[in-house]
Amino acid sequence: KLSKRLQTIADRVTAGARAADIGSDHALLPVYLVQTGKCPSAIAGELNDGPLQAAKRQIAEAGLAKAVAARKGNGLAVLEPGEADTVTIAGMGGSLMAEILETGRLAGKLEGVRELVLQPNVGEELVRRWLFEHGYVLQGEWLLEEDGKLYEVLRALREADSPTDVTNAEVYDPAFLPADMDAERKRCWLFRMGPYLLRQRAELLPEKWRQEHGKLKRIRAQLEQSELAESRGKEAQLREEMEAIEEVLSCLQ
Ligand code: SAM
């Protein structure tokens, strides 16, 4: 049985897709997708030997060596162009995820990939921006809690193939933020909080940003103890950021 987090990702993968899970670790997700018949085949990509061996063991134990391939490599380098319909990447920071997607795109590895299901641990904004800038349209966002941690799952389709014909301009509609907020700020918050999560007033969204606010508050308290002059500047920046979060939180209540 998959964890709630991995199950949420698995449920978003289109049935029948040839999947590639990048940074797969134990290959739980690709094994599940093929074992349940949701996907005909899958690739588990791993950069590191330990997780790669764990992936190979998992695949062998499931008796799926013919349908699930474990490959060693950096990001999307494990893929041949046109080999996968859906790419999943989970459990890493948004900045690494955006870097993997960009390097892969430049190497032509995303050709033929119509669906991306992504679960960044932090830095979701960077992933949304990458998707937006490269012709992928968000189709949905999910915010879930597991073992006291909050996770976001993003599903995007390549604009050219998007069956719902929803455009990025429609997805990033600023109407879901207070009318008196300036346009640039609205845009920034849509990328940070997630246009679907905002629109749906996702139940856990205020909690997520309260936690974020709490983190900044703790850092600020540490800075207050510091005698370094540069700490004052950082403190001021943090205060501004905290006020911005408070402003957005107040519109979510
Ligand atoms: N995707 C699994 C999940 O969500 O449960 C595993 C997440 S694990 C925290 C991150 C994995 O990504 C590690 O196994 C790590 O070795 C792998 N990884 C990190 N950077 C990578 C890269 N550039 N290319 C492929 N795999 C990478």
Automatic annotation (TrEMBL):
Pfam families: TrmK. Keywords: Coiled coil, Methyltransferase, Transferase. Gene3D superfamilies: 1.10.287.1890, Vaccinia Virus protein VP39 (3.40.50.150). It comes from the Bacteria. Residues 228-253 form a coiled coil. The keyword Ion transport does not apply. One of its GO terms (molecular function) is methyltransferase activity. InterPro entries: SAM-dependent_MTases_sf, TrmK. GO terms for biological process: methylation. This is SAM-dependent methyltransferase. The lineage of its organism: Bacteria, Bacillati, Bacillota, Bacilli, Bacillales.
